[in-house]
Amino acid sequence: MLVIRDTKLLEDFCETLRRRSFFAVDTEFMREKTYWPILCLIQAAADDAEAIIDPMADGIDLKPFLDLLVDPSITKVFHAARQDIEIFYRLLGEIPHPVFDTQIAAMACGFGDQIGYEPLMRSLLGAKIDKGSRFTDWSRRPLSDTQLTYALSDVTHLRDAYPILSDKLKRDGRDSWISDELDAMLDPALYAMDPTEAWRRLKLRGVRRHELGPIIKLAEWREREAQERDQPRGRIVKDDVILELARMKPKSEADLSRARALPKGLEKSRIGPGLLKAVTDGIALDQSSLPRIERNENRTPPPADVVDFLKVLLKRQCETFDVAPRMIASVSDLEAIALNADADVPAMKGWRRDVFGERAQAVLKGTVAMRLVDGKIEFIDV
Fold it and tell me: What is the pTM assigned to this prediction?
């Protein structure tokens, strides 16, 4: 097993990878106690070449490998790539490309919604993966041979699975089916961690418009604190603190002390003034410049029976075409379609329309009916 702990050996390995059309990539990281993930290992494998790179080794320069991640001539193969891409985006300042995600490809090949790595490798390769090292503290050194072997298997199986999935997509004419999902995952906005956009992570159900300014500024303040202190957001303050303070609009330390969601005594700590300033800054925002938020109570509720009918139709169409429902439509998409047969949602466009959208419109027009035959649901034209 090749474990790379110096830059020269890494350069040699990367030269080998550069001569391949693709290589599989995975990472091991820790982030339970930090805002930024701590990169502990990088695993990479191509045909006849595989290695573990130790980014925590003294003096190692990762640049040769990072350069490969943005080489347009080499496909980088991940499984459930989002967290790995987040790590590399921070190191590179750009998104690795081109990328193939086996989890997304598997959804287009009929393996279900967001299938895990182990069941997918078992289905494709008959691989048996030892879970004994699954909960390793990857930041500790030295790592045992068993732990390193487990880590490396994440990419050796991935390397072998990629041609199978890629060939199936091409054979079935479904290459384009995964492009939207990949484009969404590779959007730099997902990984920028802009504090001014942090409020979008919050669930704003029931929020009143005059509370939105304080919410935006409180979320921005928390994000900056978390980044500067390298701590998880929840260790700074919980989401419910932000929402409660936006309603209360405290002006003093005494006001803060009355917030039920704020741990007792925290108003006297160093974060107290920051919370008060964020609330004040949020109140001062021009109301006309604030983003619009949808008020759930003002929404026309979709007819529940129609939504249920569409759910059954979606399941049946996905079984017929052997594709994961998540790739076609979300529940909110189905609700939108139930209210408007021409809803502007992905399910009514492109290949999704061919698989599901046109049939959904027929349901809403009353030209498709559902019946039970030998214990199975069938859809018939009427």
Answer: 0.88
